Amino acid sequence: MRASRRAGLVAAVTTLLPCLLTPLAAAEPEPAAAQGSPVERTSGFYVDPDSTAAAWVAANPDDSKAAAIDTGIARRPSARWFGNWSGTISTAVSAYVGAADAADKLPVLVAYNIPGRDACGGHSGGGAGTPQAYRTWIRSFAAAIGDRPALVVVEPDSLGDYSCLTQKQIDERNAMLRYALDRFAASAPRTWTYLDAGNPGWLDPVTIAGHLNGAGATRAHGFSLNVSNYFSTSENTKYGDSVNAALSAYGYTKPYVVDTSRNGNGSDGEWCNPPGRRTGTPSRTGGRAEMLLWVKLPGESDGDCGVGTGSTAGQFLPKVAYDMVDGN
């Protein structure tokens, strides 16, 4: 336990003493705003010991690519994605967040299970079968985090995909996203949520700001950019600032984070396993954004396309991973 946590316990006991001495005093939950930053409550970002890169290195220690992948990817903090492949979601999330909390590190999680997932791209299609099934799933997800610190990127692609949905589907999706953000606020008060806002090459800032607002961005801590894409950090921060300028028309702005996992060489205009890409700045706070994060693990395929032809979305490709680190 860090000193800041011990100090917080001492302060809490001191604050509660007058209430304990007053008969029939009712204890009230601590307001979410008073819970403190999850960044300040932890000592750095969590490294997933069971990432696909770490698993490949453990299984192939004598491979010529193993050392570079281990140092350049497997040992760096990155997000864990959760969806309909995760089994019992409460068990999976609680175990992951619990391991990070025991290490006093901040975990980054991705909720990726909305019905009609990846409606435009198609490579990662699926998700919960119905809106009600999604509500049950996301409610369990949030409750499993509880009062432990975490960051959650909420449903990548979900707002950028509106051109591939009917108005009824858009309305249903907005309702699900608002519900998700409300559940995290209520059940995971030390979690910062980021509603995904696509990337600079997808939608113009005014359009995505409207989508964010319709999906309840006021309920989120912020928004995320460049998830699973390749645009440079400078392009993303310029875009994020423009999105905030557009959001100001609704009376608010939000902090944003940028996925830098694969943007070290910028984008060539392709989003699905383009060749010649490089890993970017490792996870850190700041960088003109609130944080730079590795959300998509380098080396995991975008789908059956580009240098990942023949693979499935999420499959770890050691040659692709090695090239991203080594620069071949």
- Kindly, what is the distance between the CA atoms of the first and last residues, rounded to a whole number of angstroms? 43 Å
Shape: globular
What fraction strand?
A: 5-15%
Cα-atom radius of gyration: 20 Å
Signal peptide: 1-27
InterPro entries: Beta_cellobiohydrolase, Beta_cellobiohydrolase_sf, Glyco_hydro_6_CS
Region (Disordered): 263-285
Protein name: Glucanase
What does it look like?
The chain is α/β, with parallel strands linked by helices. It has a single domain, classed as 1, 4-beta cellobiohydrolase (TIM Barrel). 36% of the residues lie in helices and 9% in strands. It has helices at residues 3-20, 52-59, 66-74, 89-102, 131-145, 167-187, 205-214, 233-247, 318-326; strands at 80-82, 108-111, 150-154, 191-196, 222-225, 256-259, 284-285, 291-293. The chain has an 8-stranded mixed sheet with strand order 1-2-3-4-5-6-8-7, covered by helices on one side. Helix 7 links the parallel strand 4 and strand 5 (222-225). Helix 4 runs parallel beside helix 5 (131-145) and helix 5 runs parallel beside helix 6. The radius of gyration is 20 Å and the shape is globular. The N and C termini lie far apart (43 Å). The model is unreliable at 1-34 (pLDDT under 50).
